[in-house]
Amino acid sequence: MEPEDLVCYGFDASGLEAHPAAVVWPQNVSDVVKIMNFAYANGVPVIPRGAGTGMTGGAIPLGSAIVISFERMNRILDVDRENLTVLVEPGVINGKLQRELQRHQLFFPPDPTSMNFCTIGGNVAENAGGPRAVKYGVTRDYVIGLEAVLPDGKVINTGKKTAKGVVGYDLTSLLTGSEGTLAVITKIRLKTLPLPEDVITLLVLFRELEQSGTAVRDIISHGIVPRTLEFLDREAINAVENYKPVGLPRDVAAMLLIELDGAPSVINREAEQVYDICGRLGGDAVMAEDSAARNKLWESRRALSPALYHLSPSKINEDIVVPRSRIPDMLKILSRLSEETGIKIVNFGHAGDGNIHVNLMIDRNNREEYGKARKLVK
Amino acid sequence: MEPEDLVCYGFDASGLEAHPAAVVWPQNVSDVVKIMNFAYANGVPVIPRGAGTGMTGGAIPLGSAIVISFERMNRILDVDRENLTVLVEPGVINGKLQRELQRHQLFFPPDPTSMNFCTIGGNVAENAGGPRAVKYGVTRDYVIGLEAVLPDGKVINTGKKTAKGVVGYDLTSLLTGSEGTLAVITKIRLKTLPLPEDVITLLVLFRELEQSGTAVRDIISHGIVPRTLEFLDREAINAVENYKPVGLPRDVAAMLLIELDGAPSVINREAEQVYDICGRLGGDAVMAEDSAARNKLWESRRALSPALYHLSPSKINEDIVVPRSRIPDMLKILSRLSEETGIKIVNFGHAGDGNIHVNLMIDRNNREEYGKARKLVK
Questions:
Q1: Residue B345 forms beta bridges with which residues?
Q2: I need a labelling partner for B333 at 20 to 30 A (CA). Which of A52, B193, B286, B291 fits?
Q3: What is the model's pLDDT at position A378?
């Protein structure tokens, strides 16, 4: 392998970078055991790596680590239709698994925005969420068993094949989200759900920022749990339209991308309630007419992260979570801070979870701006 | 306190017993801290105790332990309707919480069979399941944050107030189900769901044991996920009828207690599909006409455990879990074993999870029978 090949395995979507000592591509668990034995004997750190789409630096090979890339362990091993589970290797791409399960009328809800690239192994290591978390929870809620290799090369199996299993410490949940710090995961059994019968996608446009937050609160407290409740403010909409235009209006204060799934009779009624709630708050709702229109909306949402990166490569992205009921207040505070400091702030996120990505669009090389922004983050 | 008062805190529903050194009734977290400091300094074990309804001996004060009873920490502290969460003290009775949440149109799914007595603290410590686990999962799926006191008296807070929160090791899940071995839980924040709109309860009677298992498999693989799928074999039905008659027919091979919840239009259609699936397998289905009829059926199911205990106080109860698809095979094997050994075996359980309680109705004082049964269990 040429030294320049190593460079590709030294960074991820966090923008951080480090130089790996080596990259290995195991094909099965015994390869991983050999790697771990070697690394343990020689005191070399290891970094498991999926697709490098993580925003938090989980795949950065600090300390001249050996990168264990799971590109070649990417098989779907067993779709168990009768027990509603699926067994996969860590390198399976999330979107590919979604499509394969759909063929079996099954549904794996976690849908990180990078789902067309990211791997299930990475999703498990980082306990990834996604727009659908508001209704369906995060990756951890679907991991029912793991095969993993401990630092000394010992292989462990956690969890169970059945939906129920309540005995003992929950090592499956402990490993999920542990970011590769406890063990290297080599097999994953996931719970799946029956594929929802139908989906309705609504785009709601607001003239007032705060009222979009109020709508989120009111929808949930009405007992409606949409499968997504995505929020984009005016700056976010414009960033997408500049980067990959889909025809979103640029003059609104905010938009919500709301998706309902379930039986047609139920979601039609829920959609009407959402229309009512948003309408009372001055929101304009339109329904995506077919799956093409729906996909276009979601592609625009997925383009947002690259669009913002494009706009300001050195922006600061803070991922904050507040109780849903506090979103309107938070949006007010963020507008005020932006006005006071003169720093452009772009906000978007999974509003149904109270999870907002706050992007401070600064140039890190501008010392004064950077200083102000750091202070603001604190 | 008189010595005889201690006796009540020495046993639980497991039938095991030990003598506690003392019993304490803290009223708040600082009381618990004081207890833990004292116990730590003096090397005395502590055993947190809810209502003592556990079947696995989690509340038995081995080693002359101090029993920390949560009877006086039984308040519902905060029902957060907007964020669909509730904050409780460990001593709250599960059934009481269920009723209180219902008043707010909220729903906490975990429903251990002992729900009218058991406490949420005990449910969390044991990661309790219940009939509804087939659709809604177990207690761990609803615990989003904990306040707990470590052995050295340090108070920790795990988890979060929001539905999402994916950073760091999942200490909430680690403590849930740890049976009091890691820390003493003093506050619990639970996720709740909007109350389902409607419920349909079906009783299905089968002339052939194996076909009841096939029905379970077929319902699930049809994409229908009932909120309960309870199984009782002929012996179990007769035990209930002898103990607390509700008019179940004694001559069937098995029955399923199936409950569907959700929007009326959806569950009516699902109920028809269940009728069809069961009908093809020779099952006879009847619907509970109102909530009184439904409650009667559930009271009979809940009476089963005491009924069997009454019948054979020294029975051996093994709680086994197999993949749902293997239930028919397992029932066949159990019948054969019963015939071969001459030991009466009563089976019932949460068939939707593949979870069957296998009760070997033996007299432990009969050496030969006990020996055979122990061998069988292995």
A1: B360
A2: B286
A3: 60
